[in-house]
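Practice problem: predict the structure.
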Amino acid sequence: MKTYYLIFDSALPDEERASFFEKLDPQPQKRISWEAFDLEDFSSEDHLLLWLSDEQCRNILVKLRQQENPSLGLLPHPELRLFAKALGIASSKEKAFKWFLEQEKIQTFDLLSVNGEICISSLVIGESLSVLFDPTESDFFRSFGKRFSRFLKLFRKVKLETFRIKLKNKEEEKVLEVAAMGILAAGHNESSLIFKRLIEDSGLNDGLLHVLILAPKSLFSIIQFGLQNLFFPIKGGRIPDFVSYVSTEYFEVSCKKGFTYALDGEEGQAEKLELKVSEQEVSILAGFEQPKEAEVKRKEINLSRLPTGKLREALTRGYLPWVRHATTEEFKELFTLLKKNSETTSSFLVLMALSTLIATFGLFANSSPVVIGAMILAPLMGPIISLAMGALRQDGILIKSSLITLFWGIVLGLIFAVVITWITPLKTMNTEILARIRPNLLDLGIAVASGVAGAYAHSKEEIAKTLAGVAISVALVPPLAVSGIGLGWGEWNVFWGAALLLGTNLAGIVLAAALTFLVLGFSPFQLAKKGLFISLGLLILVTAPLVLSFREMVRENQLIQRLSGSHIPHGTLRGVKIRNLSPLRISVTILSDKELHTEDFSQIKSEIEESLGQSIELELTLGVMVK
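Answer:
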């Protein structure tokens, strides 16, 4: 049975102390008040159970010898907050005492030393970063209001600073000058919610200190990270790209301007801090499972992603933007791709001709699967997205090259669609063709979504470019083929309707793609605003007839809903279709349980006109109801 000494705070209420002392089984070898306690009276063979405050426990740690120190266990105390959170101490004295008795061996414990001062929980460097972390928090729900208040403070101006970082280990020494919002350090990864959420290893006794460096490129990424960290701290989560992690023996951070830091919640100012694992050998019982002994390995995550060089200079020049700006490397790769896609190549022309041929045959066959096949094959994605980037960055060469490629693609598509129309002995306005000669605001919505998808997919290497190709060609190839069919038939209403849809989708995609690139940081607004305003103006021009068309669509739908299933003296109306709105021409089937004659038809027309309150032209189909 474990023997131990109980060190207690004499300021605790007498009744509480007496009640707890009676429950102890086994009883301690001796109960010692804080005032009578002397660390020199104990050796490494002794176990001390501390019922003390943060300040008193810290005082013991400061007096620890480098070796031959007694092992320590902790009981919850009203003023034991830092230690309780950093070590996972149970909130119940009974549970904490039982845990203390069950542990046969108490392992050594890494303590972080900051300029020679012991850090129990964590060190937070950077005023902006301190908003995210509070080492005294324990209960989630009780601190919810405090968390929410800190979350609101994230919506403020943030500026990255240049930090000089030195990492030193037995095998190497590394010095970096990086742009960062702040730095979080701890002696082990169980002392902070953010460490527990992002880093799987506890690092309790690996002899290394553990550091997170936050270098966001946008305010939005900070808000997103803060929301997750403050309200959804789940262990084993994915570390964000802008967060770097390193475990090391020695860590030095300095800044010429100086910086604000918080050591276990106590704020201070410094120009340089030296961090290392405390030389004292400390055996403290934590409230979580002790890790199995394993080979100590240094770890680095995302350290090479830290902003250095020109990127560091750019990020520290002003406040962080709301959305991230693309790096020079990202823009180079994307611009090279878009420049290549804007060129009029033989492959583009061949694919354009083939996709239009397939789309035209599919339209005549009234076959949606065939039309979809043409959409997948269409190569229009490249020059449209290139045009959007050219408009955004006012790149005359890219705009010209993209427009020329689009021009030849559209002309070639029209030619092949007209030729197929001439050699096809069909002149039927089927559903596939009719769906593309009366564009409305819903089609504009499809175009905008396609533009966003195309731009986003181009900016992300991990997303297949074919996804964007499908989305964009859905909005462009079929109306192009229908325009050619209209020309081949000599039906100008078909041609202009499909051409309007084609132009609307093209303008919508370009504007949406340009805005997406702007949000992703591929151009400053001052450079982009001219191209955006021109694109917006063209979109407004083609949107006006869409609004009228959408209003007609809504009116038709209202008339159909009003008449379908309604009862008039001569029967029930079914199969209502609107053939024309001006003048109003309606096609309807009337179901009657009696025989209808010629003189009834005018009466039926009058009854429908009375129901609608306006005159109509009527196409009537008779249906007989058999009972």
